[in-house]
Amino acid sequence: MKTNWMRMTVSALAICASSSLAFGQGMDELIAAAKKEGQLTTIALPHDWCGYGDIIEGFKAKYGIAVNELNPDAGSGDEIEAIKANKGNTGPQAPDVIDVGLSFGPSAKAEGLLQPYKVSTWDTIPDSAKDAEGYWYGDYYGVLSFLVNTDIVKNVPKDWPDLLSDELANSVALAGDPRVANQAIQGVFAAGLSGDKGDIAKAGEEGLKFFAELNKKGNFVPVIGKSASLAQGSTPVIIAWDYNALSWRDILKGNPAAEVVVPKTGVVAGVYVQAISAYAPHPNAAKLWMEYLYSDEGQIGWLKGYCHPIRFDDLAKNGKIPADLLAKLPPADAYAKAVFPTVEQQNANKEVISKQWDSVVGAEVAK
């Protein structure tokens, strides 16, 4: 009873304390309050991930607020545990904000670990990628793409069925083991939505059938595809998140020439979400951080790191994305058909794919 009462009390206080700009708090007042707190504590934000290094520096330069960075290499679960472990702590080990995988948003809300806040650009965030009450909201996403060594592959595949071409014998790899790695699992899931298939409930089964056919045909290479294996020619086509594929393409510097393709169908998006801790020691700095991240400036910062910002369609529609940056990306309309599976849909298909890969596809993926 005491625990439940505490959670209810924290939730109630959070609602009162986290009034968004829409509730009357002006930006000038928020900036002043955040500067008075003087610090923001983040966690699990590597500088080479999604452009976070430049984003953090941009925030500090714009507002003159120090950023205390906890454990850049932490995972989503670690972030949640950090909130739990520091409920009564206002010191430097208590995170103000988190950036976690989609499934952690709803579960953290249910545990009373988050406080609601709706940024001023709230209406431009797709409804399917945010909590209606503002407890968590999508920040950026990737879609499954094909990274293609065009020195070897002359007819670049444009959609999933193209991977079955005779020209791609011993060519196609996943960027992970689909029995355990989310990137690979989502690759199988996306294949299951390709062509005229559109039933998310059956995508896991259909994806396994597709990879069984790919394997039987001899096109599937049962190793974990990486930039090195692409360059060596052992995996001329790798199925990976577009932000990884685009980064690998840049690392290769044209040796070999590589192209990143978002398939015409079966475009599946993997979303990360932002949230403010219910126990944030610096709640106003946390709100200001969110305003910065969801501003045009912050969203383009993520895009520079090849993570598609959640407001991408809105930015593209209004001509806000620099031309030189757009030139580095697949065409903007390639993302228009992106499917954003719910947590429940992801979990259901993950169960099917990870447990039935061996029996249906029968390919032992080597590291």
UniProtKB/TrEMBL annotation:
GO terms for molecular function: thiamine binding; thiamine pyrophosphate binding. It comes from Kaistia nematophila. Keywords: Signal. This is ABC transporter substrate-binding protein. Pfam families: SBP_bac_6. Residues 1-22 form the signal peptide. One of its GO terms (cellular component) is outer membrane-bounded periplasmic space. One of its GO terms (biological process) is thiamine transport.
